[in-house]
Amino acid sequence: MSINTLPKIEITFSPAWWSAKYEMDFGFPECWQEPIRYTERDQEQRRLLFERFGDLGLGERDPKPNPLVGVEFGHRFMSAFWNCEVIYLPDQWPHATPYPDAASRVFHLDVPEMKHSFAVELAFRNAKILEDRYGKVNSAVNFGGPLNNAVSVLGEEIFALCASDVVLAQNVLRKMGEAVRLIYDEVECVINKIPPERRRAKDWGIGNCPVGQISPQMYQEVVLPVDIWFRNTFQEINSEANFNLHHCGIFHPYVEVYQKLHPTDIDVGPGTDLQKTRQAFPDARISAYFEPATLATMSRAQIDAEVKKMITDTLPVDRFTFIRAIEVGPELSDQTIYDLLTSTDRLISENFFEELGEYHQDKSN
After folding, report:
1. Which residues have C-beta within 8 Å of that of residue 24, sequence separation ≥ 6?
2. Contacts of 236 (CB under 8 A, 6+ apart)
3. Which of 143-182 are b and which e, b meaning 16 or more Cβ less than 10 Å from the residue's Cβ?
4. What distances in angstroms separate CA 209 from CA 181, 240, 264, 330, one per listed residue?
5. Type and span of the H or E element at 326
């Protein structure tokens, strides 16, 4: 195994980090909804990261524009499509407010019509502006999964439904999935010029961030059948396509019920028993997360020890793809960022991988 098969360490920075370090203000709609403005901000962020951490591989010296649509509401495009109010905060991602009358609306919930959607209108408007300006554009909606969307749109009411009315809860979850399929087909694929014959053969994934708020038994009885339908609806042509399961909470209590989704790639949250996860998914590519607040308190030696444990618990190394610290805030020092991103370099110098029998460095380069 070569150095290219070692897990990649990734770090991303929250709006709070950008606000504290560079006084960026995210608290008004224009900074998200005006496409030239947010494209240029992204370029500037990549340039600043290179200035600060270029020796660690972050950022770009001369970043080119990366014109995107679907980011006008941060991670909450689908909530905006469902006509939730989106609130813009100075140092946070945009926040979607669930329906105030969710308890009554679940009985007659239906997918909104695209022709009346401000979110859809804005996406196509911005796509034209960006393509005229840069000669290209891509759609990059953060779709999530049925339960993710239901929590964002309906708040705690979806959990009450899961406990009290399985049929109605599954109807709501399917509506959330149908909305994702509609936006994918009629917005994302149109903007990205994906022909109809390729729309059901792609790699796909489900974001299941809120699953940790229900029991594995409730997930299996209520949500899993919809998740299976949701997966199949995007891969009905190519059953061999990759399928990512993102569960950023503690994953291992759900390994048995999640096996029925047959994920090829798994993201698991801090606190997960990685040995149990690997035993349940021997062939899956696994990614694991550091919790940023905990990471901020760790010494270099503690970081290296945790990285070692992550790798050892998820062997073989070439099936452990990413170690991530996502949306870190200003409490994380530059030194800690350096220590995390150089951890595998130190493990290589200590012959850690050779001792595992899982690594050899190609010395011909």
Report:
1. 15, 18, 41
2. 200
3. bbbbbbbbbbbbbebbbebbeeeeeebbebbbbbbebbbb
4. 19, 25, 18, 23
5. strand 320-328
Q: How far is CA 40 from CA 29, 99, 186, 191, 284, in A?
A: 16, 33, 27, 20, 37
On whether the CB atoms of residues 288 and 310 are closer than 8 A, the answer is: yes
Rounded CA gap, 17 and 24, in Å? 9
Do 134 and 186 meet the contact criterion of CB atoms below 8 Å apart? no
Give per-residue pLDDT as tens, 13-45.
999 999 999 999 999 999 999 999 999 999 999
Instruction: Round to whole Å and give the CA distance between 279 and 260.
Output: 15
The pLDDT score that the predictor gives to residue 219 is: 98
Alpha helices, H only, the chain: 15-22, 30-33, 35-53, 77-81, 102-105, 118-134, 146-154, 157-164, 166-183, 189-191, 216-218, 224-234, 255-258, 274-280, 292-295, 300-313, 334-341, 343-349, 352-356
Statement: the pTM of the whole predicted model exceeds 0.85 = yes
- Return the HEC string of 79-100: HHHCCCEEECCCCCCCEEECCC
Nearest residue to 8 via CA among 278, 341, 312, 233: 341
Tally the residues of the chain.
365
37 neighbors 30 (Cβ within 8 angstroms)? yes
> Rounded to an integer, what distance in angstroms lies between the CA atom of residue 43 and that of residue 128?
19
- Give the alpha-carbon dihedral of 244, 245, 247, 251, to 10 degrees: -120
Per-residue burial over 223-253, b = 16 or more CB atoms within 10 Å of its CB, e = otherwise: bbebbeebbebbbeeeeeeebbbbbbbebbb
Spatial contact of 146 and 174, defined as CB atoms under 8 Å apart? yes
Q: Which two tokens stand for residue 84?
A: 């939730």
Q: What is the pLDDT of residues 223-271, one digit of tens each?
A: 999 999 999 888 765 667 899 999 999 999 999 999 999 999 999 999 9
- Tell me how many degrees the CA angle 177-180-182 measures, rounded to the nearest 5: 110
What does the DSSP 8-state code read for residue 235? S
* Cβ-proximal residues to 120 (8 Å cutoff; 6+ apart), any chain: 81, 114, 183, 186, 187
Q: Count of CB atoms within 10 A of residue 282's CB? A: 8
